[in-house]
Amino acid sequence: MAGRGSVFWGRTEELRKTVIAGIIGFAVGAVIIFLYGYSPVTAFGALFSGAFGDLYSISESLANAVPLILTALTFAIGFRGGMFNIGAEGQLYLGALAAVTVTLFRLPSAVSFALSLIFAALAGAIWSLPVALLKATRGVHEVISTIMLNWISHFLSFYLIAKILVDPLRGEKTVSIAEGSRFALLVPGTSLSYSLIISIVLAIVIFILLWRTVIGFDIRAMGHNELAATYAGIVKWKIILFVFISGGVTAGIAGAVHVMGRPPTYAVYSGMPAINGLGFEGLAVAMIGRNHPIGIIFAALFFGGLLAGGRTMQIFAQVPLEMVRVVEGIVVLFLAIPELMRLFPFLNKLKTSNLFKARASE
Amino acid sequence: MKSNSKLLIAVFTAAILVVSFVAMPWMTQAGMGKVAVVLDVGGRGDLSFNDMGFKGTDEAAADFGLQMVEIQSASASDYLPNVRTAARSGQFDLIIAVGFLLTDAVATVAKEFPKQKFMIIDMVVDLPNVMSIVFNENEGSALVGALAAMVAAHYGYPNVGAVLGIEIPVLYHFEAGFRFGIDWGNKRYKEIMGRDADVGLLYTYTGTFSDIAKGKAATEAMLAQGAGLVYNVAGPLGIGDLQAIAEHLNRKGKKAGPPFMIGVDANQDWMGDGHRVLASMLKRVDNGCYNAVKAVVDGNFKGGIVVMGLKTKGVAMSKAGDLDTFMEFGIGAGEITGKDKSTIKKNWTEMRSDIPRSIWNALDDLERAIVSGRIIVPTANTLEEMQAVRARYPLTK
């Protein structure tokens, strides 16, 4: 079982690095809070109680984690295959709007519910297809094509929201998902719905796919050493196609679970102020979770906790939102450092990075 | 290497400890009332609803010795948990929700916490513990409509314009009042100047509250048809309206209007260097928030709809005093600097004093008549009602 152990059991080294990074991040945050005249004790006390203090807080943190797990998976699948897929943002918009579109057809609740998820997955997959094809046939780098497609999706979504899906009675939003086709609340009186199960199941599916199937092995082989993988007979274009389509599916579903599972409006506002950024935040979550599906679940919970705790920091410690976000940004940045160093080996040459260097035993 | 890292951790831990004990939290004073103001994603610095909501609540908190807690929303997903977390704490005597985007959140939480008092601006939430403050936009629009007609006639322009947003019932209040005002202004102009005014109205529903280019295009078309003033009834589109006016003036080698824009919601007079926006139709969100806090303090807070019009200072035409307040917002948001203030004030004063005293006096008459109830300004809530108002005041050339 030694092989299994290296997958995610006994990863104390990774855990050690994460904890150190987190401590430093919070310490720097504390200094900044102090310098601006607030009390770090009150602020962080409010942060932690608002994130994990009681059932309500934990539910809010988990609710924030639901879409982030899925957009982080998009990035992680690509990363394991040696690709830098930042297209989740655009695919997520279309996933959310696909779910809203299904509502327009007034199908029976259960059918509408299932079709919303399926069409959201399809929308995400279709939107990632040009990226895969451009890369496989023309060698266009995915960073360029995903950024471009994100913007196309952004403006296409603005058009769809304003012209096609708009709520005739309330011009500021699309029609809402029909009541019977929403995710029920898992904990009443909170924002947490059963959509959490979708996220966790998909994370486990992606884990099995990457570490327990042949195609998963091929993807990881490609990520480790493209030349060797190709030499061993792995077909590159198949891997590219698989990586981007499965990434598109999780990103599309991320949009759907947010619009179908997050109270109270169950619609997309004009300007998308609720889903804007979830794709990029997923990238940060993937970094903290070391691009591992199980790590991502915990990283998303942590990230979601920061967001929920940021609220109580604002309300009960009176730290302004701008400051809250600076502190959150610092913590996230520090937590991402170990993975960033793996990504960009030149960072290891910097002296300050000694702290995160792997031990010889690893 | 290892000792290095341990040292670093030790230093940081020590830093946290020292820092935390030095800076003891200024705890909230016991027994002090608290009021929360929840903002939408526009946040502080929007120069409109959020800034005004903050200002009004802040002033009320200072006057009545309350503590105000500002709750900003980073994402629209925050609306519900922001309102709910505040309500759950039970600490707040009143929770103010600034703007209609928070409607669903307030409706949900107000049901869960029937003893918590809420106030929402610009939208109706029909629950016994929610005070819904809405505005008589038609009354303020009538004032700026009369101003627009008389000023256009004074400078020899045949038309005035209105650039509106999405065609929703709220905007009918503006259009109906504006039409009435133009008609009133035309008649009064003939009485005081002895010349026919017959100023017409050009209006466009752009279908957007965010596409600034559409505001610019609509304004350009109106200027080409001889509009002397353009009423912005689409929030941010005013930026586009004002660009069109500035370019139009540039081509003539001028900087100051006419043509002018008329601002909306907030005081936008300071935009355009103080001499391209003649006046603004203010929705006094700040007064609404102040009154709600006062009602709680006085013990006469009641759920239900509170309509604020000219009489109750819920709407108004911009005056010199407001200009200073909103210039401070503009400075806070980095739109203008402190050095611009005196120029803007000077330009604005010149712009307004170029318009004959008799026109301003006429506007004072109209305001008094509306406040006293001698004049009832028409309004519209449905397309049918709007069409009736359009038929009564066609204002076509």
Please describe what this structure looks like.
The complex is a heterodimer of chains A (362) and B (397). In chain A, 70% of the residues lie in helices and 0% in strands. Chain A is mainly α. In chain A, helix 2 crosses helix 3, helix 5 (88-103) runs antiparallel to helix 6 and helix 5 (88-103) crosses helix 12 (278-288). Chain B has a six-stranded parallel sheet with strand order 2-1-3-4-5-11, with helices on both faces. Chain B has a six-stranded mixed sheet with strand order 7-6-8-9-10-12, sandwiched between helices. Chain B is globular and about 80 Å long. Mean pLDDT of chain B is 90; it is low at 19-30. Classes of the chains: A mainly alpha (362), B alpha/beta (397). The interface between A and B is large, with 53 and 51 residues.
Question: In brief, what are we looking at here?
Answer:
Chain A has 362 residues and is mostly helical.
The ordered string of helix (H) and strand (E) elements of chain B is HEHEHEHEEHEHEHEHEEHEEHHHH
Overall CATH class of the largest domain in chain B: Alpha Beta
**Spatial strand sequence of the major β-sheet of chain B:** 2-1-3-4-5-11
- Total domain count of chain B: 2
Q: Please state the overall shape of chain B, judged from the principal axes of the Cα atoms.
A: globular
Distance between the termini of chain B: 85 Å
* Beta strand count of chain A: 0
